[in-house]
Amino acid sequence: MYIGIDDTDSRERGCSTYVLTEIIRRSGLDLIGYPRLVRLNPSVPWKTRGNGALCAKLGKGKGRKWPAGHFDGRTVYAFESGDEGISREEMIEISAMAIYDLAELLEDATNPGIVVGESPTSPDIYWKCVRGVEDIGSVTEKLKKSGHSYLGIKNGRGIIGAAAALSWVPSSRTYEALLYRYPHPDSIPFSTKMNAAVMAENVKGSFNNIDVLNTYPAIFPRERTPVVMGIRSTEDEKLLSSSIEIAEKNGIEFDRDMIFETNQATDEHIEVEPAILQDFHSYRLSCVVSGYPYSIRGSHYFVELNYGEVNLKAAAFEPTKEFRRIFRELLPGDRIVIYGSFSEGVLNVEKMEIISLSTAYIRENPICENCNSRTENRGRNDFRCRKCGSVYRIPHYRIHERELKSGRYDVPVIARRHLSRPFSLGGSS
Hints:
Elements: E1 2-6, H1 16-27, E2 30-32, E3 36-39, E4 52-71, E5 74-83, H2 88-102, E6 113-117, H3 123-131, H4 136-146, E7 149-152, H5 158-167, E8 174-180, H6 190-200, E9 206-207, E10 210-211, E11 216-217, E12 227-233, H7 239-249, E13 256-262, E14 270-272, E15 281-289, E16 294-296, E17 300-307, E18 310-316, H8 323-327, E19 335-343, E20 346-356, E21 361-364, E22 376-379, E23 382-384, E24 391-392, E25 396-399, E26 407-410
Parallel strand pairs: 2-5, 3-13, 14-15, 18-20
Antiparallel strand pairs: 1-4, 1-6, 2-4, 3-4, 4-5, 4-13, 6-7, 8-12, 8-13, 9-12, 10-11, 15-17, 15-19, 16-17, 17-18, 19-20, 20-26, 21-25, 22-23, 23-24
């Protein structure tokens, strides 16, 4: 039986991944494959913190098995296949009770949804939800046609994400091991967090662990949630055991853990070179810089670009930190490929490739041909030698050696979105 849930947390607290682990625990069933954490469109204005939806396939496991987590001191295994072991009605009841017990239902923006069925939902739901904007009416109609059951709590908007999570067909995937302590962990000293994040760098395939320059231990959540810490990796082998070892070596207490298969760092939210740009979508665009970068109050930087016949602005906002030093060195004529979310004519930059740089010139007073000394400017196109009085009408120009180089530039870890794939992992949209 497939179960999908979404929208159980708020912007400040709670965690849908923990709710799913509780549904798994209460069902008494085995996992068939890893549970999934599926990030959706990061640009929709009504998203939860990480805009992540959850799903799992549950049943009576058979065949090869491997550790996927620990509940109540026992190992939870994932199996390669399994038989049905629960009815839809039972699955919805167990899920609803866990949501009512654990979700942030007093928050206006929290509107959980549950979707269950014997098969995944249509893949087009995922692609619409990760790259665009879907509405609940359209999704429920698709669920009725596919024969899935669903339940919405409050306005039920979470049905959209739950259906999307069940429709994700991984072509690229990563993993995240999450450690929990309910209702939330005790305060962890900052030095301990930093030390653990440094240790996470040695976990095979791990990424986005720490931002040293901005002293940000990214494996720890900023909000107050049941999540103690989470380590992401391109590899699942030893990810969970390594995470547990790091926690134990640093005296970090937890009482539950689980590894998730995810679409994080896949760039699946990115659309490549579209003919038309739409608000709340994310794009990869080949552009030519058409203006000089400028800043506004708050240390936010903007630059004007030409994307074919379209004029737009790119923005490197203050949270992108040192990335702005690269961004503000762009000059008209530079050819770049830029990635980010688009809204009201502005692309919020996630990362950037500099393909080629324009030649920049510095205007100087000419050198006197007689005295070999620099002339002085006496007015518009009036350059005079102080020694011999020779007059020159044309300024001298020399090539400005730019510090900026062609190459690939990510925003720092502290500003990186869940779905954005760091260049260091290879591949791109």
